[in-house]
Amino acid sequence: MSAVLDHHAAGDHAHDHHDHAPTGWRRWVFATNHKDIGTLYLLFSFTMLMIGGVLALGIRAELFQPGLQIMNPEFFNQLTTMHGIIMVFGAIMPAFVGFANWMIPLQIGASDMAFARMNNFSFWLMVPAGLMLVGSFFMPGGAPAAGWTLYAPLTLQMGPSMDAGIFAMHILGASSIMGSINIIVTILNMRAPGMTLMKMPMFCWTWLITAYLLIAVMPVLAGAITMTLTDRHFGTSFFNPAGGGDPVMYQHIFWFFGHPEVYIMILPAFGIISQVVPAFSRKKLFGYASMVYATSSIAILSFIVWAHHMFTTGMPVTGQLFFMYATMLIAVPTAVKIFNWIATMWKGSLTFETPMLFAVGFIFVFTIGGFTGLMPAVAPLDIQLQDTYFIVAHFHYVLVAGSLFALFAGFYYWSPKWTGVMYDEARGKIHFWWSILSFNLTFFPMHFLGLAGMPRRYADYPMQFADFNAIASVGAFLFGLAQVYFFFFIVLPVMRGQGQKAPQKPWEGAEGLEWEVPSPAPFHTFETPPKLDATATRVIG
């Protein structure tokens, strides 16, 4: 995060003195600088991560033992619903947008994002939306309790907080669309001369493709929740069978958004890992072009697999076969990426600083998540696994060990450039080992619970599931504590500028334009486009 926030005053960079950087609260409220907006996104997403994490700990506290311990089932369902919505829309997506804001202009040699004021607007839209989501707990009847997928007919029966949730998601969707337009225009129009598309860093590629996905699917979500809203208040019957509607239609519309959404949350993570692994292997990324094509393939295929979430809704066998094969097919480009990262490390000169630990941890645990995703892709198997804890384990392996671990890898990799100081390496390694061990302690037992038939979203369970649930709950509290440790002992010190001063290029094997500017990155970078060498990774002269 952009620590040493007042490095202008300190006179670190003489040329910063006449760039009239705003100061005080105006700098943040009216921020138009991509670095400041990136910092705001990261702080917002971490706040939401902590709130969503507290909800998750409420869920795990209730499930520590069989029987109802500390809450009624209705409140338990509010927690499962809001935990999912807050983590997906409030924590993971904004965190990646924060990385995009910080790094894309630095990586392509642009002076800033294309639409600076729209950038500010798209961030500040998120704050009221986040407040509305959290505030829904204090409305009559409590927060929505329809699951994060907001399935009808439950959504048609919820109290007024459902409307607040719908409004919040509309605003978040508008924010995402504006952010995506900004990213696309920046990448396509503002690259430094000589940086062709096929010389761009992988992080920029994955975000370019993600931004197109967001623009394609966010309006679909808006449509689904608007139809829910009109069913609730304006007498329509889109999803109400009594009026000729169909609740399964909601699932089709939702998952047509929801499955590409899963890749929206993992493609930027692939981009970060594709930056970190070559840097600490001291080698070029193996198969760069194949990585670009694999990312594009994942994006295209993500539109034709949505109904694998719906194998138990009674679709015809032809439909089941189509979605089964399409889902298996999407594993191919994903595997290409895994093999390419491993091939990059092969015979490399590896060192294991914290960013690399998180990257290798990501590859290991994300691969487990990928395999457990292939299993319910088989329709007959899915009928057993549908809505059990096996599915919970699968998507947390992808989203926590996937998205979140990649975000940590990116933070440790780039924070010296953001803050001008090095994080404490020993503390970073503690954070990694504490996180990966407690993560596996939490979610690995859930595979067995699911295979034994324990359903999701239930506040109580039979005695035979007690031991694994107790283990998972202990793991969850340990994992939550690891993230509190991360904030207080790693993030706060670097934001305050405590630590060893970071060199311009702290990692020996790192390549790219971001390492051509001083640490911390000055308020204004690349005011004149840099002249690039043949590889488009270094500035000439």
Automatic annotation (TrEMBL):
- Give a GO molecular function annotation for the protein: cytochrome-c oxidase activity
Intracellular or extracellular location(s): Cell membrane; Membrane
Record's protein name: Cytochrome c oxidase subunit 1
Highest rank taxon of the organism: Bacteria
Membrane topology value: Multi-pass membrane protein
Q: Which residues form the signal peptide?
A: none
GO-annotated biological processes: electron transport coupled proton transport; oxidative phosphorylation; respiratory electron transport chain
Look up the record and report any one GO term of the cellular component aspect. Answer: plasma membrane
Q: Which family does it belong to?
A: Belongs to the heme-copper respiratory oxidase family.
Q: Which residues form the Cytochrome oxidase subunit I profile domain?
A: 28-533
State its role.
Answer: Cytochrome c oxidase is the component of the respiratory chain that catalyzes the reduction of oxygen to water. Subunits 1-3 form the functional core of the enzyme complex. CO I is the catalytic subunit of the enzyme. Electrons originating in cytochrome c are transferred via the copper A center of subunit 2 and heme A of subunit 1 to the bimetallic center formed by heme A3 and copper B.
Region feature (Disordered): 1-20
Q: Which top EC class applies here?
A: translocase
Q: Which InterPro entries match?
A: Cyt_c_oxase-like_su1_dom (IPR023616), Cyt_c_oxase-like_su1_sf (IPR036927), Cyt_C_Oxase_1 (IPR000883), Cyt_c_Oxase_su1_BS (IPR023615), Cyt_c_oxase_su1_dom (IPR033944), Cyt_c_oxidase_su1_bac (IPR014241)
| Keyword annotations | Cell membrane, Copper, Electron transport, Heme, Iron, Membrane, Metal-binding, Respiratory chain, Translocase, Transmembrane, Transmembrane helix, Transport
Instruction: Tell me the route in metabolism or biology where this protein functions.
Output: Energy metabolism; oxidative phosphorylation
Question: For this protein, what is the EC number?
Answer: 7.1.1.9
Q: Which Pfam families match?
A: COX1
This enzyme catalyses: 4 Fe(II)-[cytochrome c] + O2 + 8 H(+)(in) = 4 Fe(III)-[cytochrome c] + 2 H2O + 4 H(+)(out)
